[in-house]
Automatic annotation (TrEMBL):
Domain of life: Bacteria
Entry keyword set: DNA-binding, Transcription, Transcription regulation
Domain HTH gntR-type: 2-70
Species whose genome carries this gene: Cytobacillus gottheilii
Protein name per its UniProtKB record: Trehalose operon repressor
NCBIfam families: trehalos_R_Bsub
C-alpha cells in the first residue's frame, strides 16, 4: 500500500494543477492539513517537503507554503538562444530592463575572462529579465567593443544577438558554459524578486563568433524556481 504522505502529496499536486490552489496562493497551514487529511503533522511535513523538492511550493517563514508558477523557461544547455527568441517560443509576457550600459576599460577579472589587454574597451551591459511581471534573471554581459561596435542601450533592450547577426552580418558560432549554484548577493536581492529564495543559479557563458573569436562573457544569474536546463544526449557506440 502506498505511503500516506505520498497519497497526500499526489492529492495536493492534483489540486494545484486544477488551480484549486492557484499560483501565488498559500496552502492551508500544517495544522489545517493535519485535520483535513486526518493524519499526523509529521506526515503532512513529508508531503510538503516533497512538494517543495519538486518545485510546486516555496516555504517562506512567517507566510507558509506558497504555490509556485509551474511554467519554467527551458534553457538549452548545448544550444545558443537569445532571451527574445526563448520567450517568443514560449508565448510568455517578457520584458528586458537595462540596468547598466557603458563602454569602459576592463578590470582584471574581465581581462582574464575575455583574454584581452587593459587598453581594450568593453561594453558593460547589465539587464534584468522580467517574466510575467517578475524579475527573475540578471544578465551581466561584457562584450569586446572592437568585435561588436556600435551597441546602444536600445539594442541591448531588444536583442544583442539579433543586432550582431542582422545588422553587423556576423555569425555567432558556439559557447562554453559553466553552471554553479551560489548564495545570492546583495545585488541579486536588490535587482531581482528574491523574497524567500536563498540560492541562485549562475551560468557563465563564453560566446564565440564562427571564426572562433571570443567576443562575449556573460554571467547569467537565475532565480531557481523559474528555469529548467534541458539537453538531449545520445549514447555513441558500445562500451
Amino acid at each position: 500500500m502506498k505511503n500516506k504522505y505520498l497519497m497526500i502529496y499526489e492529492d495536493l499536486v492534483e489540486k494545484i494543477h486544477q488551480e484549486e490552489y492557484p499560483v501565488h496562493s498559500i496552502l492551508p497551514s500544517e495544522n489545517d492539513l493535519t485535520d483535513l487529511y486526518s493524519t499526523s503533522r509529521e506526515t503532512i511535513r513529508k508531503a510538503l517537503n516533497l512538494l517543495a523538492q519538486n518545485g510546486y511550493i516555496q516555504k517562506i517563514r512567517g507566510k507558509g507554503s506558497i504555490v509556485l508558477d509551474l511554467k519554467k523557461l527551458q534553457f538549452p544547455i548545448s544550444g545558443l538562444v537569445s532571451f527574445k527568441e526563448l520567450t517568443g517560443t514560449m508565448g510568455q509576457q517578457a520584458e528586458t530592463i537595462v540596468a547598466e550600459f557603458s563602454l569602459k576599460k576592463p578590470d582584471s577579472n574581465i581581462m582574464k575572462q575575455l583574454q584581452i589587454e587593459k587598453d581594450d574597451k568593453v561594453w558593460k551591459v547589465h539587464r534584468i529579465r522580467k517574466i510575467e511581471g517578475e524579475k527573475i534573471i540578471l544578465d551581466k554581459d561584457y562584450i569586446i567593443e572592437s568585435q561588436i561596435p556600435g551597441l546602444t542601450e536600445e539594442i541591448c533592450k531588444r536583442s544583442i544577438f539579433e543586432y550582431i547577426e542582422k545588422v553587423l552580418g556576423r555569425k555567432i558560432g558556439f559557447a562554453k558554459k559553466e553552471f554553479t549554484v551560489e548564495e545570492p548577493t546583495a545585488e541579486d536581492y536588490k535587482l531581482l524578486d528574491m523574497e524567500g529564495f536563498h540560492a541562485i543559479v549562475v551560468v557563465k557563458n563564453y560566446i564565440y563568433l564562427d571564426d572562433a573569436a571570443l567576443f562575449q562573457y556573460t554571467e547569467s544569474r537565475h532565480r531557481p524556481d523559474k528555469f529548467r536546463f534541458v539537453d538531449f544526449a545520445r549514447r555513441m557506440g558500445n562500451a
